[in-house]
Structure formats: structure tokens, C-alpha cells
Amino acid sequence: MTLHDLELEEVGRDFGAVRVLDRVSCTIAGGAITGLIGPNGAGKSTLFDLIAGSRSPSRGRIRFAGRRIEHLPPYRRHRAGIARGFQVARPFLGLSVLENVMLAAPGQAGELFWRNWLTPGAVARGERAVAADAMALLEFVGLADLARAEAAVLSGGQRKLLDLARLLLGRPRLILLDEPGAGVAPALLERIMERIAAVNRRGVGFLIIEHNLDLVMRLCSRVLVMAEGRILTAGTAEEVRADPRVARAWLGP
Amino acid sequence: MIAHFASYATFFLTLALADGIACLGLNLQWGWTGLFNAGVAGFYAIGAYATALLTAPAQPGLLGGGGLPFWVGWLGAAVLSAAVALAIGRPVLRLRADFLAIVTFGFAVSVQLVALNATALTGGAFGRSFLPHPFASAPATLALVAGLALLAWVGLERLVASPWGRALRAVREDEGAAAALGKNPAALRLQSFVLGAALIGLAGAIRAQFIGFVAPEDFLPVLTFRIWVMLIVGGAGNFTGALAGAVVVSALWSGSGAALTALLPPAWQVRGAAVQVVAIGVGIALLLLFRPRGLVAERVRVSRHLPPPPGSGPRRERGGDGDGRRHPRSGG
Question: Would the CB atoms of A112 and B164 count as touching at under 8 Å?
Fold first, then answer.
């Protein structure tokens, strides 16, 4: 058990009469890259919603670093160290690429409106520091040249890289990625995978939903398989691949 | 003749700049936060009656009448308007955006009805009069109002060109993504709504004080409409545009009236009011046809602590990139 484990205990979610998630219990080890796979409609994205807080669970408990979080609103979970990327990247199109990243910095003095009138010097210093951090991250994902451009000019793959940079600025302990490989050209995908591995070496944990099994096999030390709203099995990539139940869940009986 | 014109210009500019201050407040709410405040007239009325109650001399049969200095009335107007916005915004801003429009519209109608019927407080249909003028000379009053408008403009420009403004804009564009990045959408929206309402309340107080009189008929929904037109013509999302829009639309409003009186044959004068509405409508339509984003368009860069991007001017027109979340902008 490490410091930033994410523990799910009997977590469930219903939409009306439809039970999308049945009692899901598992522990996602802090600092590891965990894969989450399963056929469409298995409840993977809903599970992300429950962890990140954009939906509340109908039942069950969620703990992060030993603290109950299932009642916290999304912005408080981000502050607790959980950063969530979306299946389709959602940059703020009206802001520059740089400001998209800067936005994610936690605890900025200038976000308290009165400080912009009362302590403009402190706000300016904070902005310089955040801008430097954001530029370093844009270098890291290879978007530094586009820092001043409007985010609307980015391609789909570049938006995913921007999303990654934005997630990293908050110094999260756990990053949830929803299909980082979807709709991304192979060369760009290599870069994204490289970056994920590099961030992980610094001790940041990942939970990754992905349909591209090669990516999952290469990156993830542990894989959770979901089907029909529950965890079907869990294990190393090889164990999961060898499990006949997994093939059945994908292909039907 | 010249003296007459100067005195009219002073009168006109004072009222236009008062509306401009309201327009600045509305721009914070709509242009920067996407809050559809359909009850501008309500906050205007709160401000106007607040200063009437605080500064007018005591009159038999009427409550209030504090006889206090005008600036106490204006401060009280801004504070009361902000407090009312806080009370409305706290529950409503957690809900979907459309609810704010419904609630604020209902609020403005209720305020107007209360003004009409709570006779002891508001003087009923006759209103309250004898509000003391800020200064004996009209140009001094104009200078004060212009100073306040400038102060509000500078204060707002500094306020939004900052991490706060950036977070506000992010919430406007995609609330879910902003929350996933640690921003508290409800708190940001509430702050913007309350600050904007304080300015609208102040504008109401300035107007009432300058005219020396408040009555319920000043706060019909057409007032809300007028401030909105000013913002859209000026360019939503830009404070300079909001002030420019207030002056231009005020000129259109009163200029068309004066022009019609001078130009229309006597037999048509009766229909002048209807023709004026048509003239204003055509004028606004032409403005928006040639400047769809308003007189002054929104900027891309937010934080003033960053260097401006190369070749950055007004925001480019963008075709639909399939993103239905974008902020609806009239004429955009």
C-alpha cells in the first residue's frame, strides 16, 4: 500500500432503472500505470466520472490517499490530486494555448478577484512563475511553438497533447486518461506514450482507458477488465490476455 | 445657441455614462461569464430607490428620507444591489444557465410592481422626488460621473486581465472542463454576478440622483432591453466597447427623436414615437451588419501579465468548428 492509492469500495451507479455500474471494488495502486479495458458500454467512462466527481455514485465509497472523496465536487478532487482528461480533449478554444495550460495551476493568487486590485505585484509574480512552468510543460509535449496561438487552431492530436500538459500543471498524484490513443496518428501516439512513461517515472500514477491493446500492454503494469458494470478480472497484461473470460466478454459467448 | 447645446450635451453625456456604468456591469456578467441577466431594470431600480430613501429629505407619509449626502446614497445603492444579487445568485447560479434569465426577469417585474404598490416606501406611481443634486453645477456632476465610469472601466480591465478573468472565461466556455481543472464554477459565477449587479445599482442611483426623481415607469423591461442593446452594439466581452456602445446607442435614441421632430411634417408628428422605434431598429441592424462583433471586438489574450501574441488584434471570425458549447453571440 502506497500513499496515493485510490480505493473503490462497492461503488455503483444507476441511471434511472439501468444499473450502469454494479458494486465495483478495487484498489488502484499509487504511482503505477493501470489500464482499464472492456467492451463499449462496460461502464469505464462512468467509473471515471465517479472518480473525478462529475457524477456522484449511487452507492459505495471512494478513498484517495486514505481520504473519503465521493462527496467532493470535481474542483476539490482536482485539488486533492486527481486530474482527469476527457475522451475528446476539451481545450478552451477562446484562450491561447499557453493560457489553457496556465489555467490549471492550483492556488493562483490572481484567482481571488480582490487581489488583482489590492496586491497586483504578487499576482504578477505568480503569473510569471506559472507561465514559466506552463512553457516548460509545452516544451515537454512539443507544443512550445504554438504557445501564443489560439487553442482553436490545434489539431485533434495536438489537443490531446495540450490536455496532457494541462493535466500535469496541477501536479496531480493520479491522472485519469480516457482513450489517449483515440484518433491520434501513430507518430504522435508514440510521443504521447513516451510522455506518459516519463511522467510516471516521477511517481505520478495513471489510470488509462484504452481500446488499443498494444498501448495497454506496453504501458500498464496492471490491467482491470470491465464488462457489464463490474470488474471481470484484473492482473498483469499477459494474465489478462490469457484469460478466456476476457475474450468472451469482447466477442460474445 | 451654443450655451444651449453645451448644456444639452452635459445632460446627455451624464445619463449616457450612467448607462455606460450599468453596461460595464452587464458586460462582466454576460461578456465575461455568460450570465444572461434579464433583470437589469430590477437592479437599476434597487439602486435608484436605495439612494432615494437615503438622500431625499423626509416627507410626511413616506418612510426613509434620510437626507444623507449623495455619495452615501450611491454607496448604499451599490451595496444593496450587490446584496440582492448575492441572495438571488447563490441558489440560482448552481442551476442551468437558462434559470438565471427566468429568475432575473421575474425579479425585475416584481421589483417594479413593489415600487408601484409599496406606497409608503416608494411613493407609489408618483415616485419619490427632491433627491438632492450631487453638485449645483451640471458640468461638475458630469465630471464626477465620468470619473466614476473611468474608475469602473480601469478597475474592470485590471480585474479580468488576470487569472480570475481567465478562470471566468474558461467557465463560460466549458464549465465541466474548468471544474476538472480545479476551478469552482459556482463561486466564480457568483462573484461576477454580484460585482456586475453592484455597478448596475450604482448606475441606477446616479441616474435617479441626476434627474432628482424616481418613478416606477422608469424601470420597465425596455430599460433592460436598452442596456442590452448598448452592450451588443458596443461589443460584448470588451469593456471599452461597453462604454462606447452606451454613448452611441444613447445618441441614437435621443438623436432619432430630435431628428424626427425636426424633419417630420406636422401631420406625422403624432406617429413620431413609432417612427423613432423603427429608426432605432434600423440603426442597430445596420451597425451589426457592418460590425457583427460590435464596435470593439473581444480580445484573445486574457492575462495582462503575459506579452501580447504576435499580430494579435481583435479576435478573428471563426467558422463553426462543430463545437456547440460556444457562447452564443448575437450577430457572431
Answer: yes
pLDDT tens across B91-147, in order? Answer: 999 877 789 999 999 999 999 999 999 988 888 888 888 888 888 888 999 999 999
Question: Are A179 and A108 within one domain?
Answer: no
pTM: 0.88
Return the minimum-mean-pLDDT range out of A199-213, B105-119, B266-280.
B266-280
B93: which chain A residues are within 8 Å (Cβ-Cβ)? none
pLDDT of residue B298 exceeding 80 = no
Residue B247 lies in a domain: no
Tell me whether residues B176 and A110 touch, CB distance under 8 A.
no
Q: For residue B331, what pLDDT is reported? A: 36
Task: Collect all residues of chain B within an 8 Å Cβ-Cβ radius of residue A103.
Answer: 163, 166-167, 170, 178, 181, 183
Strand partners, B213: B129
Task: Kindly state the cell numbers that stand for A58.
Answer: 449511487
CB contact under 8 A, B158 and A120: yes
Any domain includes B1: no
A67/A190 same-domain check: yes
**Cell numbers given for B45:** 431600480
A198 with A244, same domain: the answer is yes
Q: Write out pLDDT tens, residues A70-88.
A: 899 999 999 999 999 888 8
- Is the domain of A82 the same as that of A101? no
What is the dihedral sign for C-alpha B141, B210, B244, B312? positive
Within chain B, strands assigned E span 128-129, 213-214
pLDDT at B16 over 90: yes
Phi, then psi, of B147 in degrees rounded to 5: -60, -45
A162 located within any domain:
no
- Boundaries of domain holding B188: 9-220
In a domain, A161, yes or no: no
* Residue span of the structural domain in which A149 resides: 94-153
CB contact under 8 A, A99 and B302: yes
The interface predicted TM-score of the complex, written ipTM, equals 0.88
Residues pairing with A150 in the sheet: A96
Neighbouring residues of B149: CB distance < 8 A, sequence distance ≥ 6: B17, B20, B21, B24, B243
How far apart are the C-alpha atoms of B60 and A138, rounded to whole Å?
70
What integer pLDDT is reported at residue B17 of this predicted model?
97
Predicted confidence band of residue A23 (pLDDT cuts 50, 70, 90): confident
Q: Can you read off the three cell numbers belonging to residue A97?
A: 494555448
CA-to-CA separations, A84 to A170, B169, B176, in angstroms, rounded:
11, 20, 11
Q: Is residue A244 part of a domain?
A: yes
Chain B residues contacting A, CB < 8 Å? 155, 158-159, 162-164, 166-167, 169-170, 173-174, 176-185, 191, 195, 298, 300-303, 305-306, 309-310, 315-316, 318, 321, 323, 326
A 189-208 near B (Cβ less than 8 A): none
Residue A83 and residue A189 share a domain:
yes
Query: Is A165 part of any domain?
Result: no
pLDDT confidence bin for A2, thresholds 50/70/90: low
Q: How many domains does chain B have?
A: 1
Question: Is B96 a member of any domain?
Answer: yes
Contacts of B170 in chain A (CB under 8 A): 92, 95, 103
| Same domain assignment for residues A84 and A103 | no
As given in the structure block, the three cell numbers for residue B256 are 432619432
